[in-house]
Write a structure and sequence with these properties.
Blueprint: H1 3-13, E1 16-21, H2 23-27, H3 40-43, H4 46-49, H5 52-57, H6 59-74, H7 80-90, E2 95-100, H8 106-115, E3 125-126, E4 129-136, E5 142-144, E6 166-170, H9 179-191, E7 194-198, H10 209-216, E8 220-225, E9 237-240, H11 243-251
Parallel strand pairs: 1-2, 1-7, 2-3, 7-8, 8-9
Antiparallel strand pairs: 4-5, 4-6
Bound molecules: 2'-O-acetyl adenosine-5-diphosphoribose.
Length: 257
């Protein structure tokens, strides 16, 4: 049996599946990854742009960076990989929980495209937050993203009704992940007999522990990636190729080929 068929059979025989995605699934939509040859962290220093210290030191610079990333995401659309995972999450069997490290909102948009009013069932747990939301750096209140952010001076930056500076609602280096969201992801990982891991370098913890939890509970890992990762030796099936070519084929019913 070839690797794709084996993976498809594993996926569809599972009662419960957890899917972990990373920047690779959005790469073909035009959202840059972090660690690839053109990756964001090859050109920018995370400690200057994606830490609480950086925001305290130079909030205008940090806002400029996120306004730029928002503009990129606004010009992108979900791809066949996002849509195939939304469809998988809508099935009753396997019962599937989507977990993403991506902040781009493309899984969310794919769910709405595919399921309309039923989109709720296909929404991902966004463990690193969402770029299309703001959060108050003082009181923690969450709001939809301010449309236009003026970064000319700290005084011009958007503020919460409490007076605190708003910031993008994403997790920065050195910050804890939302305990409720992470807890739900870990629970899904422990209950899953298959963890499907798509387009992540599997280097950033605690998200990278999701497949490890499934493995520890006796489940298996299927990996979809253009390259090998530290997770590859642990995967029962490793599919080498792009998310848009492999994920739709993987999510099809096994009888179809
Ligand atoms: P990375 O940039 O580290 O890894 C992207 C992965 O996707 C790599 O393993 C690539 O080989 C793979 N890839 C690229 N194009 C692909 C394609 N078309 N199809 C399938 N795979 C492809 O991104 P993440 O693993 O998501 O965190 O990074 C994890 C976290 O590190 C991010 O959420 C972000 C970053 O710092 C925070 O900002 C907190």
């Amino acid at each position: 049996m070839d690797a794709l068929r084996r993976a498809r059979a594993l996926l569809h025989d599972a009662d419960r599946v957890v899917v972990l995605t990373g920047a690779g699934i959005s790469a073909e939509s035009g959202v840059p990854t972090f660690r690839g040859p053109e990756g964001l962290w090859r050109r920018h220093r995370p400690e200057e742009l994606a830490t609480p210290e950086a925001f305290r030191r130079d909030p205008c610079l940090v806002w400029e960076w996120y306004a730029w990333r928002r503009s990129i995401v606004a010009g992108c659309a979900p791809n066949d990989g996002h849509r195939a995972l939304a469809r998988l999450a809508l099935l009753d069997r396997p019962r599937t929980t989507l977990v993403t490290q991506n902040v781009d909102g493309l899984h969310h948009r794919a769910a709405v495209e595919v399921a309309g009013p039923d989109a709720g069932r296909a929404l991902p747990l966004e463990v690193h937050g969402a770029i299309h939301r703001d959060r108050c750096s003082r009181c923690g209140a969450r709001t939809p993203a301010v449309a236009e952010v003026s970064t000319s001076s700290p005084e011009a930056l958007p503020r919460c009704h409490c007076g605190g500076l708003l910031r993008p609602d994403v997790v920065w280096f050195g910050e804890a992940l939302d305990a409720e969201v992470l807890g739900a992801a870990f629970e899904a990982a422990a209950e899953a007999s298959v963890c499907l891991v798509v387009g992540t370098s599997a280097l950033v913890y605690p998200a990278a522990s999701i497949p490890e939890i499934t493995l520890g509970a006796g489940g298996v890992v299927i990996e979809v990636n253009t390259d090998a990762t530290p997770l590859t030796p642990w995967a029962s099936v490793s599919l080498r190729g792009t998310a848009t070519s492999l994920v739709p084929a993987l999510a099809e019913a096994p009888s179809s080929g």
